[in-house]
Amino acid sequence: MMAARALRCIAIAIAIAGAIDPAVTMSGAIPARLAIVVLQPGSAAAETARARLVRDLAASYEIVPQVTSDTAAAIVIGDRYPDEPLPEHLLVATVSTVAAPTPNVRLVRVEAPREVPAATTIHIDVDVEALGFAGRPTDVTAGIGGLEAGRASHLWTTDRERWRGGIDAVPVGEPPWAVRVGLAETPGANDGTAADVIVDVRRRPLRMEVYEPRPSWATTFVRRALEADARFEVASLSFSSRGVSVRTGNGLSLSDPRLDAADVVVVGGLDRLSAADVRSLDRFMRERGGAVALVPDMRPNTGPVRELLPIDMTERLLERPAKLSMMSGAAPLEASELLLLGGLPPDSSPVAAGAGLPAEPLAKEGTAVPVIVSMPRGSGRLLVSGAMDAWRFRAADNGAFDRFWQGTLAGLALAAPAPIEVRVAPPVLRPFEKGEVTVRVRSRDGAAIGASIDGDQPIRLRPEPEAGVFRGTFTARGTPGRSTIDVHLADSARQSASRTMLVQSDARRIAAEPLLSMLSSSHRGVDVTPDRVAELERFVRGAVISPDAAVVRRPLRSPWWLLPFAGCLSAEWWVRRRRGLR
Question: Which pLDDT does position 382 carry in this prediction?
Fold first, then answer.
């Protein structure tokens, strides 16, 4: 009878444990999610490469066929560049299934501002990719009216490489300026050697609003630098004590609806910002699309402003001022009281960094640590300056402090959308070519909108699903020259905007498709051929680490517990039957 009771107790214990369903917390690694994307389904080479990668990596990673928001890395297999863009922060490796083309170099992207203030150089960003050009230089030029207005050079170091550079072109002649960006005297360059862009002069001033809930030397000298530049229209509001304020220009509070007329808001005295101020700044960036520059003079540890700063900040005091290294060619700042910024969003853009400033866990010894950073916030941008006492060294390097803030804030202001924004694609058309116009209206009051080209040819604008966006098509004139597209709103303010476009018989534009290998080079990955998949596997295992996390297990949910449960009951019944019991 003891055996029968023991078997019965074991069965009852299994049933009770199954009903309670206990949870066991274990510490272990969760397999990172790895996307293996095949761009040419059915290709023998692509399917063979994918099968091998899945077989070798499935034990270490969770393999998925597409990129999702929680994907740690991606492997793209194919013979062309993907149609859909991948997140910039995502690690991407590629397997190119086509034979390497002959050596060439070509333009991939040319980006220029739609307009610049008068007497200002035109900054043009270019992406150039090269294949088989290791050890050879390439020059990229920007020409206006047949004259070279700017040049940049690059020496290729690998056989497959993409270079992102900038050119500052001096405008020549009357606006708008037709700028032709091209590869200068590059043997082996393919057809994508030149592209035309149009840059107009900005008629509106760059409107700056400076707000100080308490006086701050940092923002005071930034404001003075802006007031010394004729391109800016500066207004400020500073509270010297409770209920006592000082205004210059038409200084506004952050809750005033007229603040949307500004392009950039510069804010100091961050510890005195109220929750209402923070909400107004957040709305200014997200809805208006403007830029906010935070200029602290001490580390903001607490208070409502922390809602705008979801980043790590480590204060560093130096015995001697350090010269910060600039990422965009801006004038270098000097500072000795620094906020080293870490935990930044993936799409942040460092503006200035301090080289050789150890700040664990933000960076390793000897690396450049971000000090001034620009990051997106809705449709606008947020600039955070950690050079807290740079104003003390404003006279150094021939006034580099003033030049830095003038150039940086001018760039933010030029990127802020106008009340009515008009884009034409392509910017330079050939005679009788079809073009597309896109209009973005900041106002959401539903006012009627109209457009025409050269004043006599109406353009029908269709509303897009995105609020305030309209698109239409038109046909370019048959003779070379300039055309003007006029857009107006039928509201009480009768707002309007215009865009000048050019018609040229020799219009040049980028039409070449980038190589798949350039996807990996721009996403910190590697590119291999199908016979070198083993190298790719080693790279992935070293670059993609599965994170450690607490894992909750419920062992009683396994269906295998039915076997001992049924076995115990059956054995107990058998023992009782052998002894003549029921």
Answer: 93
User: Where is the domain boundary, 164, 181, 201?
Assistant: 201
- Boundary-marking domain end, from 353, 381, 415: 415
Residue 444 confidence (pLDDT): 59
Asked whether residue 380 is domain-assigned, the answer is yes
**Cβ atoms 406, 480 nearer than 8 A:** no
SS (HEC) of 110-160: EECCCEECCCCCEEEEEEEEEECCCCCEEEEEEEECCEEEEEEEEECCCCE
For the chain, the distance separating the N- and C-terminal CA atoms, rounded to the nearest angstrom, is 12
C-alpha angle 151/153/158, rounded to 5°?
A: 155
Residues 247 and 291 in one domain: yes
Q: What is the pLDDT of residue 211?
A: 95
Instruction: Tell me the Ramachandran region of residue 119: left when phi exceeds 0, alpha when psi lies from -120 to 50, beta otherwise.
Output: left
560 secondary structure, DSSP code: G
When divided into structural domains, the chain yields a total of: 5
Domain identity same for 284 and 352? yes
- pTM for the whole structure: 0.64
Separation of CA 382 from chain center: 12
Q: What is the DSSP letter of 30?
A: P
Q: How far apart are CA 510 and CA 407, in angstroms?
A: 29
Mean pLDDT for each consecutive 10-residue tract of the chain (582 residues)? 71 73 65 85 83 88 85 86 81 80 75 84 86 85 88 85 85 87 64 79 88 92 92 90 82 88 92 92 91 92 86 87 79 87 80 58 53 89 91 87 90 86 86 88 70 85 84 87 84 73 83 72 83 88 72 69 75 73 62
Considering the domain architecture, whether residues 196 and 213 belong to the same structural domain is answered as no
Those residues with Cβ within 8 angstroms of residue 307's Cβ, 6 or more apart along the chain or in another chain: 278, 282
Structure tokens, 85: 């863009």
Specify whether 489 is located in the same domain as 522: no
For residue 508, being part of any structural domain is answered with: no
pLDDT for the residue 118: 81
Q: What pLDDT was estimated at residue 203?
A: 81
179 is in which domain, residue-wise? 104-201
Computed from CA positions of residues 442, 443, 449, 454, in that sequence, does the dihedral angle turn out positive or negative?
negative
In a domain, 510, yes or no: no
Q: Is residue 313 part of a domain?
A: yes
At 209 the pLDDT is 95
- Same structural domain, 566 and 539: no
- Tokens linked to 227: 């007031």
CATH code: domain of residue 429: 2.60.40.10
